[in-house]
Write a structure and sequence with these properties.
- The protein has 136 residues and is an alpha/beta fold.
- It has one domain: 3-Layer(aba) Sandwich (Rossmann fold), CATH 3.40.50.2300.
- The chain is built from five helices and five strands; from the N terminus they run βαβαβαβαβα.
- It has a five-stranded parallel β-sheet, with helices on both faces.
- Helix 2 runs parallel beside helix 3.
- The protein starts with 6 loop residues before the first strand and ends in a 15-residue tail after the last helix.
- About 7% of the residues have low confidence.
């Protein structure tokens, strides 16, 4: 019996990033949804109940870290990968304390995104062994 596809939400205010991740997610055999800001991400997390969210830190209305906290409160089972081009130790620490599953720096490598999707789908528990930099 085939396993269900993942439902993956992509939350980023940059259309190019959203569309690139959308292609990678769909080519990996999963269902993709897109949000343009933190508010949409929160609303969609509650309505579509994604398994995984790729979320940018800097977005309009509500930033990614604030949205992460709200999403993890409402849907603790949803895992979130934080993405940013402006990473710092403080950002990583805050993302981890709010429940982020992983942290990746922009620009990211498409192969790393594919690896993360595969490891998540396969139930990989020890993401620290991954070659993807920044994962917790």
């Amino acid at each position: 019996m085939a396993r269900e596809k993942l439902k993956v939400l992509i939350a980023d205010d940059q259309a190019g990033v959203r569309f690139l991740l959308d292609i990678v997610v769909r080519e990996s055999g999963h269902k993709s949804y897109m949000a343009q800001n933190g508010m949409e991400a929160i609303e969609m997390a509650c309505s579509i109940k994604p398994d995984l969210i790729f979320m940018d830190v800097r977005m309009p209305l509500i930033g990614g870290l604030e949205a992460l906290g709200k999403i993890k409160t409402a849907r603790p089972e949803t895992q979130v990968i934080i993405m940013t081009a402006y990473g710092s130790e403080q950002t990583v620490s805050e993302a981890k304390s709010k429940g982020a599953w992983c942290y990746i720096a922009k620009p990211f490598d498409v192969e790393e995104i594919k690896e993360l999707l595969n490891k998540f789908f396969d139930g990989f528990d020890d993401i620290a062994e991954s070659r993807v930099a920044g994962c917790m």
